Amino acid sequence: MKLTLRVWRQKNADADGAMSTYEVDGISADMSFLEMLDTLNEELILAGDDPVAFDHDCREGICGACSLVINGDAHGPERTTTCQLHMRSFRDGDTIDVEPWRAAAFPVVKDLVVDRSAFDRIIQAGGYITAPTGAAPEAHATPVPKPDADFAFEHAECIGCGACVAACPNGAAMLFTSAKINHLNVLPQGAPERETRVLDMVGQMDEEGFGGCTLTGECATACPKGIPLFSITAMNKEWLRATRKAGRR
């Protein structure tokens, strides 16, 4: 395939950015989107130009590092991560716009790379348990009802890629935060910090400058791991429970 790429280029967080146009040829339909960008960068390097900076790591849809807005959609036209998006989703002669996540809490570092350390700080605020675990316990030492285990596993699938923020018209991080809260709060190991966890993590989320949630649902639609929208309402229920309990003390 021969494609026209319109790629966001920005030297650093303080510089102005703009879309630059490139032509790439000989692109296989079996290439991943990141492999296509690798091909572009090889051509730029051979021409003595600065390659396009973009995030990647495992390239297996697990780490959440890849983070691109492709033709206006977080991760592109398929419900998957950018690294697992293949060029068969496009046609010969297509023009493809490639941009970084757009959110006030995700400042651009360079080109397509954004700083997502706001997510790390939300996790640090309460995404852990304090109970000493020691050696691995017996599998059935702490019984967990299957519905609770399924609920926890469903939310633990969040890879922290930030597609929910990029897709949200308000730049909200509610789906990410709710996934990290819910998968711990429903388990007995997370019970000691159940109230402080939701209050601290929601408080940190607000401090980071993410937008407010209006339940438009774009976050759940864009999530490559299928975190459901009701995760947000479950977190809101936890938050109300924690604030009422704190008010009675």
From TrEMBL:
Its cofactor is [2Fe-2S] cluster; [3Fe-4S] cluster. Residues 149-178 form the 4Fe-4S ferredoxin-type domain. InterPro entries: 2Fe-2S_ferredoxin-like_sf, 2Fe-2S_ferredoxin-type, 2Fe2S_fd_BS, 4Fe4S_Fe-S-bd, 4Fe4S_Fe_S_CS, Beta-grasp_dom_sf, Helical_ferredxn, SDH/FRD_Iron-Sulfur. Residues 1-102 form the 2Fe-2S ferredoxin-type domain. Keywords: Iron, Iron-sulfur, Metal-binding. One of its GO terms (molecular function) is metal ion binding. It comes from the Bacteria. Belongs to the succinate dehydrogenase/fumarate reductase iron-sulfur protein family. This is Succinate dehydrogenase/fumarate reductase iron-sulfur subunit. It comes from Streptomyces triticiradicis. GO terms for biological process: aerobic respiration; respiratory electron transport chain.
